[in-house]
Design brief:
The longest helix is centred in the N-terminal third of the chain and has 26 residues, at 30-55. The protein has seven helices and no strands. By secondary structure, the protein is mainly α. The protein is rod-shaped and about 125 Å long.
Length: 166
């Protein structure tokens, strides 16, 4: 059996190893800053989309009501009156400070054309909205009028949050 060897370093005055302190919570590593920034951006984006969704509620309601009107069996006069009321309500929601509430006849049709960026209300199928509700049997193409009204409603702007009414 070999003789135990003695450790030549055992007689040196060495101290125990001291480990560095555990990293603290603050400041976080750069990756956590990136995660926090991305989270903040996502929250802001969600809030913006939610706000826009709320501001477009009146437009979605008007489009739903238009779809319901398409499915109802109404006379041409009743249909024109209902479409006129629907367009006027939507216009008042979109532009409450505009004086569109008092418009009638050709002025109302010009307003619809200017806001819808079309000429179909004053020169096309939309002409029947001015005088059609007051005629006993107005003649017009309902499908074309529904398409015109639907396109006009789809172009409505998001409601301004300062002007939004309950």
């Amino acid at each position: 059996m070999p003789a135990p060897t003695t450790n030549p370093y055992s007689s040196l005055p060495l101290h125990d190893l001291h480990l560095p302190p555990v990293p603290g919570f603050w400041p976080p590593a750069p990756g956590w800053w990136l995660v926090a920034a991305l989270l903040l951006i996502l929250v802001c984006l969600f809030l913006l989309l939610l706000n826009r969704h709320k501001r477009l509620t009146y437009r979605r309601q008007a489009l739903r009501e238009l779809t319901q009107l398409e499915q109802q069996p109404l006379s041409h006069s009743e249909l024109l009156a209902a479409l006129s009321r629907l367009l006027r309500r939507a216009a008042l929601k979109a532009w409450p400070d505009n004086s569109c509430a008092g418009l009638s006849g050709q002025e109302w049709l010009k307003f619809l054309d200017s806001q819808g960026k079309t000429t179909e209300f004053t020169t096309g199928v939309g002409q029947c909205l001015a005088s059609g509700p007051y005629q006993p049997e107005p003649q017009f193409e309902p499908l074309a009028l529904f398409n015109l009204c639907r396109n006009w409603l789809r172009r409505l702007p998001a409601q301004d949050k300062r002007r939004r009414s309950a």
